[in-house]
Design a protein that fits this description.
Layout lengths: L19 H20 L2 H18 L26 H10 L6 H18 L3 H14 L2 H17 L3 H17 L3 H17 L3 H14 L6 H17 L3 H18 L2 H16 L5 H17 L3 H17 L3 H17 L3 H17 L3 H18 L2 H17 L3 H18 L2 H17 L3 H17 L3 H17 L3 H17 L3 H18 L15
Helix pairs in contact: 2-3, 3-4, 4-5, 5-6, 6-7, 6-8, 7-8, 8-9, 8-10, 9-10, 10-11, 10-12, 11-12, 12-13, 12-14, 13-14, 14-15, 14-16, 15-16, 16-17, 16-18, 17-18, 18-19, 19-20, 20-21, 20-22, 21-22, 22-23, 22-24
Length: 532
C-alpha cells in the first residue's frame, strides 16, 4: 500500500544496539501512520490510491499490452517492466474504487500478478491472485481463473482445495457448453482425484477429457491427459495397459514438439513402469534422459521430481550414499519452488537411505516429517506409504507390537486409496511379524495375499523378496519340497531384476533355516556383484 513518506519514519525493525524504548516508539509510530490513513475520508483515500497507481504504472513503463483471452492457452508470456509491481498495482486499483478505468486495471494486474507468481514458484500468492481475479470477472474468465487457482492449489499440495476448485471450474464450463475447456479442467482434476485415492473417478474423468480433445489441434492436452491416465492405471496395477498409454503419450509429446511434457512422461514411465517391474537399467537410463530434457526446457519443478526419482532408483539398487546425494538436491529444489507434495516423497526416500546406512533414528525422524507433510497436503497415498515406513523402523528396533499396529494402519490406508503395490508390501510385512510370533497359519495366508498383489501389478522385485520369505515359513512347517519350489522361483526373479543385496540376505537366512531344519542346503549360486 502506498503512503506519503514521513521524514522521521525509520524501519520498525530494531537495529543492533537499539534500546527497547526506541523499538516501542518505532512500532507505535507505524501504528500512528496506519491510524492516520484510516482517518482519511473514503473519497480522499481513493484519490491517494489512484495517484499512487498512476505514479507506479508510469515508473514501470506504462500499462502492459493486452495479453489476449485468458482461455486462449498461449504459452510463454512476455515479461513486462510492471511485473514486479503487478500485485501492488492491483491493490491500489482496488483502493481507488470507481475511479475511471480502475476496475479493468485491477483485473489486468491481478491476472499479471498471478502469472508472475506462478513463474516464480510462489504458488500460494498465485492462487490468491487467481481467486481474486475470478471474483471480479464473470463467464469464461471466471471459470478459467478458478481452474488455474485449482491447478496452483494442487501444485502446492492443497489437494482438497484443488478438487473443489477444479470441480467448480469444470461445472462452469459445462454449463456454458465449452466441452474443450471442461476437458482441460479434467486433466488436472484426474490428478487431484488420484491423490485422494479416488482412482475410479480419476480414470473416468481423464477418459472423458480424452474424448473431448481434437486429435489434430489438441495434441499437447491429449498427451497430458493420456500421461495422467497411464499413472492412474499403473497405481491400479494395470501395468501393461499403463505402459502402452505412457508410450502413446510419449509419442504424442514428440510429435507435437512438447519437450516440457516429454520430460515429465519419460520420468513417469521410468518410475511407475520400469522401476516397478524390475527393469532397473532401463529405469535409470530413462530417468537420466528425463532429467536432461527437464533441465533443457527450464522446468525447475520437474527437475526436482526427476532428481528425487533418480535417487529412488539408486536407493532400490543398494547405492544409499549416492541416493542420499541426489535426494538432498531434489529436496533443495522442491523447497525452492514450494513443491510440498514431492517434498514429502523426497523426505520419505531420504529416510530409506538413512535406514540402509544404519541411521535408524535419523530415518524415523525423516519418515515422521514425510507423514506430517502428507497429512498437511491431504495426500492419503503418501500418508499410507509413510505409515508403513515408520512401522518398518519400529520393527527393526524390536518394537514389534507398535510396528504391527502402524503397519495395520498403513494397510488400511493403502486399501482405501487403491495403492496395490503398498497393499502387497504391508501384507508381506505383517506376514513376517505373524511368522515371528508363531502365528504360522495367519502368516501363510498373508504371504499368499501379498504374492497375489505383487503378481497382479507385475512387480517381480517384491514378488521375489516376498517369495523367499514364504519359503522360509514353509520350511519351518516341514514342507521342504514346497519350500524348495518357492525358493527357486523367488531366487530366479531376484536375479532377473538384479537384486544383489536381497539375494545375499535371502541366501544367508536360507542356509541357517536349512541347518535348523536338518535338510540339505537349497542349491543357490552366489550372486555376482552388480556394477552400477
Amino acid at each position: 500500500m502506498f503512503f506519503p513518506p514521513f521524514d522521521s519514519l525509520r524501519s520498525p525493525v530494531a537495529a543492533p544496539g537499539m534500546s527497547s524504548a526506541e523499538t516501542v516508539y518505532l512500532f507505535r509510530h507505524a501504528l500512528l501512520r496506519d491510524a492516520a490513513y484510516q482517518l482519511q475520508l473514503p473519497g480522499e483515500r481513493a484519490r491517494l490510491h489512484a495517484a499512487a497507481f498512476d505514479a507506479i504504472e508510469a515508473l514501470a513503463g506504462g500499462r502492459r499490452p493486452d495479453p489476449g483471452p485468458l482461455e486462449a492457452d498461449v504459452k510463454g508470456r512476455r515479461p513486462h517492466a510492471s511485473d514486479a509491481f503487478a500485485r501492488e498495482l492491483a491493490d491500489h486499483a482496488r483502493g481507488a474504487g470507481d475511479a475511471a478505468g480502475m476496475r479493468e486495471a485491477r483485473a489486468l494486474y491481478l491476472r499479471q500478478a498471478a502469472e508472475v507468481a506462478e513463474q516464480r514458484f510462489r504458488y500460494e500468492a498465485a492462487q490468491e491472485s487467481w481467486l481474486e481475479f475470478a471474483g471480479v470477472r464473470g463467464g469464461v474468465e471466471r471459470a478459467e481463473a478458478t481452474r488455474r487457482a485449482g491447478w496452483t492449489a494442487w501444485t502446492r499440495g492443497r489437494v482438497a482445495e484443488a478438487v473443489r476448485l477444479l470441480e467448480e471450474a469444470a461445472a462452469a464450463f459445462r454449463e456454458m457448453g465449452m466441452a474443450r475447456l471442461e476437458a482441460i479442467a479434467f486433466v488436472a482434476l484426474g490428478l487431484a482425484y488420484q491423490d485422494t485415492g479416488r482412482l475410479e473417478d480419476a480414470e473416468a474423468t481423464l477418459r472423458r477429457a480424452l474424448e473431448a480433445f481434437d486429435p489434430t489441434s489438441d495434441l499437447s492436452w491429449e498427451g497430458a491427459a493420456l500421461g495422467n491416465l497411464a499413472g492412474v492405471l499403473s497405481l491400479g496395477g494395470r501395468m501393461e495397459e499403463a505402459e502402452r498409454a505412457y508410450e502413446r503419450a510419449l509419442g504424442i509429446c514428440r510429435k507435437s514438439g512438447n519437450r516440457w511434457n516429454e520430460g515429465i512422461v519419460l520420468g513417469n514411465l521410468a518410475a511407475r513402469i520400469y522401476l516397478e517391474t524390475g527393469r532397473m537399467e532401463l529405469a535409470e537410463r530413462m530417468h537420466e534422459d528425463s532429467l536432461a530434457v527437464l533441465r533443457e526446457v527450464g522446468n525447475r519443478r520437474g527437475e526436482g521430481v526427476a532428481l528425487e526419482k533418480l535417487g529412488l532408483v539408486y536407493l532400490v539398487t543398494g547405492r544409499a550414499e549416492l541416493a542420499e546425494k541426489f535426494l538432498l538436491q531434489a529436496l533443495a529444489i522442491q523447497r525452492e519452488v514450494g513443491d510440498r507434495r514431492f517434498e514429502g516423497n523426497a523426505l520419505g526416500n531420504l529416510g530409506g537411505a538413512a535406514m540402509q546406512l544404519g541411521a535408524l533414528d535419523k530415518a524415523r525422524d525423516l519418515y515422521e516429517q514425510s507423514m506430517a507433510l502428507s497429512r498437511e497436503t491431504g495426500n492419503r497415498r503418501s500418508e499410507g506409504i509413510a505409515l508403513g515406513n515408520l512401522g518398518e523402523i519400529l520393527l527393526r528396533q524390536g518394537r514389534t507390537l507398535e510396528a504391527e499396529s502402524l503397519i495395520e494402519q498403513a494397510l488400511a490406508v493403502n486399501l482405501e486409496v487403491g495403492n496395490r503395490r503398498s497393499v502387497g508390501l504391508m501384507q508381506a510385512k505383517l506376514a513376517g511379524i505373524y511368522a515371528g510370533a508363531g502365528r504360522s497359519g495367519e502368516a501363510a495366508s498373508m504371504y499368499a495375499r501379498a504374492l497375489d498383489d505383487h503378481r497382479a501389478i507385475q512387480n517381480r522385485r517384491l514378488e521375489g523378496a516376498t517369495g523367499w520369505r514364504f519359503a522360509l515359513l514353509l520350511l519351518s512347517q516341514g514342507k521342504a519340497a514346497e519350500s524348495r519350489a518357492f525358493w527357486r522361483s523367488s531366487v530366479a526373479l531376484l536375479r532377473e531384476v538384479n537384486e544383489t543385496l536381497e539375494l545375499q540376505e535371502a541366501m544367508t537366512h536360507m542356509r541357517k533355516a536349512c541347518a535348523n531344519a536338518g535338510v540339505e542346503a537349497f542349491e543357490a549360486e552366489e550372486p555376482h556383484p552388480r556394477e552400477w
